[in-house]
Amino acid sequence: MSARETVLQLRDIHKSFGDTPVLRGIDLTVTSHQVVALIGASGSGKSTLLRTINLLEPIDDGQILLRGEDISDPRVKADAVRARIGVVFQAFNLFPHLTVLDNVTLASRHVFRRARAEAEARGMELLEQIGLADKATEYPDRLSGGQQQRTAIARALATDPELLLLDEVTSALDPELVGEVLDAVRQLGESGTTIVMATHEMAFARDVADHVVFLDRGVIEEEGPPAKLFWTPSSPRTREFLARFLA
Amino acid sequence: MTREPRDTARPPSELELGRRAFRRRQTARSVAIAVVSTIAFAVVAWFTILSTPGWERVQESFFSIDAAVKAWPRVIDGLWLNIRVLFFAVIGVAIVSLLLATVRTLRGPVFFPLRALAAGYTDLFRGMPLIIVLYLVGFGIPGLRLEGLGRMPAEFWGTIALILTYSAYVSEVLRAGIESVHPSQRLAARSLGLGYAKTLRLVVLPQAARKVTPALMNDFVAMQKDVGLISVLGAVDAVRAAQIETAAAFNFTPYVLAGLLFVLLALPMIRLTDWYTARMRVREQMGSIV
């Protein structure tokens, strides 16, 4: 295994919506090829944390370092940073007026200015990998939820991002479709993609993640390798949360 | 409208065959009823109008074939002018209204003056009657004796006036369309690294345009008719040509002729958009629409 380098570093992140504090001092380090799972109740700040990393949500205090570069500096070009980070949303957010392939190649063609042929070759490769090559010319609304979410994953990967953020990617799917999306994520993790994911799928977090972070009311209550966190949690709040989920 | 299933590998059941036969009978009955009622209505309408005491005189002065044939060359020449004016006006409106709509959706305090200006523009030109804009532009601007613009023909000023007025309407339609695209679409586009302008051009506008196509078409057809108003500036378009012919022959048929030609002009565009929106729906959505 190659030497691990730090991809993402969060230092004392604070964020409030109005008077409601959502993140209250988050410190987190993600190294390359690591799969980090954020778990916690709804409203614990998982999604907000992911959105601050991608600069879709400005932070109130703290620092976000992407490969050592402070991307929370207002002088940094947000679009350039976002181009280096892939995001998959809970509700897919595919573009309904573009075909599956065009959805996947949009960023390579218009942000990275790659030639159409080149972008489409890479796009087809990804769709092949994810089992959707035969749907390339379909429009998103004609696909099932699981196929849509897999398309969204391919779209996020099309520009070979340094970091992939997954925001509860299976929450909008029924149990049967959850499996196919989780398999796609598992494959990515095994192939060495650096991933930070917010998830409610405890079993999945346990199997796939290298590092699990339990967020509670805007702070990291406990973090560690899945075996440790799920079987011998040290914090009573973690135990309480897991008891409700794994019961 | 029923579509037969594409799966031909399995023969349909007795039950399904029965349902299909029933639907065919229903369709045939509906068509028969429609045909009979249409004919009945037409016959009643025809005899009612024919039996009015003044019908013969009205027919002579509004529906005279001779007068129509005589007026044809001049009116069709005039209509050609309308079409040319319409062509340039549509291009002008597309550009100006898109700019206005974009400016009005810009966020941030920096753009306040631009936003306010665009809002003021739409308020002014949506409120002002087109005919007054035509007079002000058509007689006012040439009065300034600007170098090079002094000798522009009436249809030029008419086109400008149409662009000014219709851009205000169309920009509001476009703005409604832009704001109707769900914010999560912008979020997804920005997360891919697309900037504000590219997000607007590649993601928001294509979806917005589709949502407001019927409304845009409405404005297009309205403008197609209002092109006839440039005649008040002295341009010899279809309406003015009809007026000249009417005055010469003491017969109103040329007006009817011009009116019918405007209707014919509008039809292809209306059908085209109906066809286009239906195709989009079939292509991008699954299942039937109830």
Question: Would you kindly provide a written description of the structure presented here, covering whatever features stand out?
Answer:
The complex is a heterodimer of chains A (247) and B (290). In chain A, the strands form 2 sheets. Chain A has a 6-stranded mixed β-sheet, sandwiched between helices. In chain A, strands 2-1-4-5 form a 4-stranded antiparallel β-sheet, with helices on one face. The longest helix of chain A is centred in the C-terminal third of the chain and has 16 residues, at 175-190. With 247 residues, chain A is α/β, with parallel strands linked by helices. Chain A has 9 helices and 10 strands. Chain A is 38% helix and 25% strand. In chain A, helix 3 crosses helix 4 (116-129). Chain B is mainly alpha-helical and 290 residues long. Chain B has 2 domains: 14-51; 66-284, MetI-like (MetI-like fold, Orthogonal Bundle), CATH 1.10.3720. Chain B has helices at 14-50, 55-62, 65-105, 112-127, 130-143, 154-180, 183-191, 196-226, 238-249, 253-284. In chain B, helix 3 packs across helix 10 and helix 7 packs across helix 8 (196-226). The mean pLDDT of chain B is 89. The A-B interface holds A 54, 56, 79-80, 82-85, 87, 89, 91, 93-97, 106-107, 110-111, 139, 141-142, 155-156, 159 and B 184-185, 187-195, 198, 202-203, 206-207, 210, 283-286.
